[in-house]
Input
Amino acid sequence: MFNAQRCLVAQSLEEAYAANQKRTAAVMGGMCWMKMGHRRLQTIIDLSALGLDQIEAAADEITIGAMVTLRQLETSPVLAAEFGSAFADAVRPIVGVQLRNCATVGGSVWGRFGFSDVLTLLLALDVEVELYPGGRVPLEKFVRMPPDDQILVSLRIRRTGRAVAIQSHRNSATDFPVLAAAASRTPAGAWTLTVGARPQRAMRVEIALPAHPTREQADAALAAALAEVPFGSNMRAGADYRRHLAGVLLRRAVLQIEGGEA
Output
């Protein structure tokens, strides 16, 4: 458990950012992972008064505030209308409703966790991260940036008409994923794949597939794409097993989209 001398409930992004410039300060999200650490902090910064707990749809994009919980992602009618069951499929295996009511999307994305189902799904979409004061950054670039003292404000998902599906495999229910994989397709037929829990953080690759691919065509394209993706071993699985599993889960995601189920 960490220690902190005070909790600042920020009344503006400017106040939160100013407080976060000190090395002895940290922004709190749902605190599901922060509480597992052993840091000694002067100040923890609470963003709950800034109205960042909403999911809002505009004509060209969907905004997800940093304080939106994983449970909100799971139950959002806005996300379900745009992406079908993908967000619910991504977060439903994560521990239980109690934790999903606490864990925030901002904490999940800012942490850049290798095991993150949320990051695996978001990378398959057209997403920008809104930072204060740095402005918008493509999510694919953000995940490669080192952590800094900016404030993550929201995620902006462009409404490009992508169909998306996510699959994951766990050794036991509610455990960390052995592998997570997502696929998405634009209306023009461009495909994006992401592979997470490699066990490194999720990675995005593009592939070319014909309209309504056969299983053989899908397998060939997936094999070529996965040749670009490095896999590693840890206590949950070996690299070779993860590579095989990635092909299986991505094929399922592609066929789920092609079958109109995503």
